[in-house]
Design a protein that fits this description.
Largest sheet: none
CATH topology of the largest domain: Hypothetical protein af1432
Strand content: under 5%
Number of strands: 0
Helix content: 55-70%
CATH superfamily of the largest domain: Hypothetical protein af1432
CATH architecture of the largest domain: Orthogonal Bundle
CATH class of the largest domain: Mainly Alpha
Bound molecules: magnesium ion
Length: 373
């Protein structure tokens, strides 16, 4: 076991759970959180939720489940190298996308539009709502009753208005403070994971090409070095070897730059971390290259007409579903009807956000096609 640094989140010094529980046996508080997340229904549904490509487009594309596992893998490597708490990084990483709607960003935008007069919809806040309220599994409490540190990491960003209503967990947004280093790691591991797998999946789908990517420095540098070393390498292996080197560069850079920042600010504990500037960061040069890659993906992949067509369909499905339930709450499954009596729009948002891509497509058919039941 590696030694935890003084500024690592310490499960024994956790700010605790909302409902007090006996301490776990044979595992730490953060391990228990990780375990609860893995056993949740929302976690299983990540298998059939997507970010860019819709689930039925192919079996080889990332899903939110494999994405979350990749984030956890990257995050844990960085955490271990910096003497930080791997278990907390893992818990936050595995939970960070639990609140995502079906159909990635298109779904989230559509649901947010539907909810604009009722408090809006924000996937980060929804992830917190999933673990705080929506998971109904334990006898003694609603949700998963996770530790403060895990919940804080899940709530990556949030508006000041929402922060005000969230109490303790929203405090840092009002006071402009940082979360734990473990939460900061999970956040940037997410960025590393999706940029790289979008390159990989984008190439696999044929929507972008190696030739186009040659204009992106971080890709072309590694592509050139792989080709120089292995001139005969082609296709998937060439792409994978290039992507793996990109990930390695980003992870190493993140680790080294963060190590330097930590040394410079030498936080004595987690409280110092909260008051310091962000201490988990890329170097300026790599940050710039990441931006260049992001811009490329935005222009050539996320705005590709084939992606736009699917996004358009996705938005229509989500909007149709919302309107149908809003028009007649009796169409909702019983457990959501109970919630609907308190707050109809929020109950619909909870139901729709919980759907997988394929469930939303089927539910749309069930509601709008006469032959389906
Ligand atoms: Mg993510």
């Amino acid at each position: 076991m590696y030694e935890l640094a003084a500024y690592a989140a310490n499960p024994a010094a956790s700010r605790g759970r909302q409902i007090v529980e006996a301490p776990p046996v044979g595992r730490t508080e953060f391990q228990r959180d990780r375990d609860r997340i893995i056993h949740s229904a929302a976690f299983r549904r990540l298998e059939y939720k997507t970010q860019v490509f819709v689930n039925h487009e192919g079996d080889l594309f990332r899903t939110r489940l494999t994405h979350s596992i990749e984030v956890a893998q990257i995050g844990r490597s960085v955490a271990r190298n910096l003497g930080l708490n791997e278990d907390l990084v893992e818990a936050v990483s595995l939970a960070h996308d639990l609140g995502h709607t079906p159909f990635g960003h298109a779904g989230q935008d559509a649901l947010n539009d539907c909810m604009k007069d009722y408090g809006g919809f924000e996937h980060n806040l929804q992830s917190l709502r999933v673990v705080d309220v929506l998971e109904q599994r334990y006898a003694a409490f609603e949700g998963l009753n996770l530790c403060f540190e895990t919940r804080e990491g899940i709530l990556k960003h949030c508006s000041l208005k929402n922060a005000q209503e969230l109490g303790e967990i929203g405090e840092r947004f009002m006071r402009k403070m940082r979360p734990s280093l473990e939460a900061q790691i999970a956040n940037l591991a997410d960025e590393i994971a999706y940029n790289n797998h979008d390159v990989d999946d984008g190439l696999r789908s044929g929507l972008i090409s190696i030739e186009q990517l040659a204009s992106v420095r971080i890709f072309s540098q590694h592509l050139d070095s792989v080709k120089a070393q292995y001139p005969a390498l082609v296709d998937r292996r060439l792409i994978h070897e290039t992507v793996r080197r990109m990930i390695n560069t980003l992870v190493s850079d993140l680790t080294e730059r963060s190590r330097a920042l930590i040394a410079q600010h030498h936080p004595g504990g987690v409280d110092d971390v909260r008051n310091a500037p962000p201490l988990i960061a890329f170097s300026a040069g790599i940050q710039e290259q990441q931006q260049e890659l992001k811009k490329f993906l935005h222009k050539h992949l996320y705005q590709h007409y084939r992606v736009a067509r699917m996004s358009n369909k996705a938005k229509r499905i989500v909007t149709d579903l919302f309107r149908a339930f809003y028009g007649d709450a009796r169409l909702l499954p019983p457990e959501f009807q109970v919630r609907a009596e308190i707050d109809l729009p929020r109950a619909i948002a909870d139901y729709v956000a919980g759907m997988t891509d394929r469930y939303a497509i089927r539910e749309h058919r069930r509601l709008f096609t006469v032959e389906e039941t």
